[in-house]
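Class prep. Sample record?

___
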Amino acid sequence: MNDDATRYPLSWPTGWKRTPSYQRQRARFQSGGAALTVHRAITRLSGELARLGARDEILSTNMQTRLDGLPYSGQSEPADPGVAVYFTLKGQARCLACDAWTRTADNIAAIAQHIDALRRIDRYGVGTLDQAFAGYAPRLQAAPSEWWIVFGISRSSTRAAVEEAFTRLAKTAHPDAGGSHDAMARLTEAKTAALREVAAS
């Protein structure tokens, strides 16, 4: 999973549901009473990933990056504030993504808070991190016939929305872009299933 991820532009994980822009909300993540900056949000996320024991982290956003791979300051908020973080945990490739909030910094902070909650699962002895991450597997391994899950769009989407989602995901799934033949074949199958269903409705 980490091999296909880019820091910029955003590499949204295949099959991970997107939040429509009209459903995104303003978050209340703050630092010292002020709106959280991208820099401070990344600091929070880095701390949580370190405490989790994650390795090989890749933070993927639609914010242009500096030479060190992190977003540079002073940028305008991108139209798509979604964030995905790819990492390795106990030898397994993992990913968490969030686009529920209107600001990139808030989506980064939300992932940091989510990781804190995941660490508590192990700490309190009720479950394990492996069990928690297993809950994400169905989304990331959806069958092509469940095209709306593969594309992360509504099942009532239009043909144009299907085409847009296919084009967006193909940018990272195609072998020439660092993807694989299997990933591209899966997307193509999902597109075929989607267009068949959209045409029939």
Q: What stands out?
A: The CA atoms of residues 69 and 199 lie 43 Å apart. The chain has two domains: 2-138, 142-200. The chain has a mean pLDDT of 85. The first strand starts at residue 30 and ends at 31.
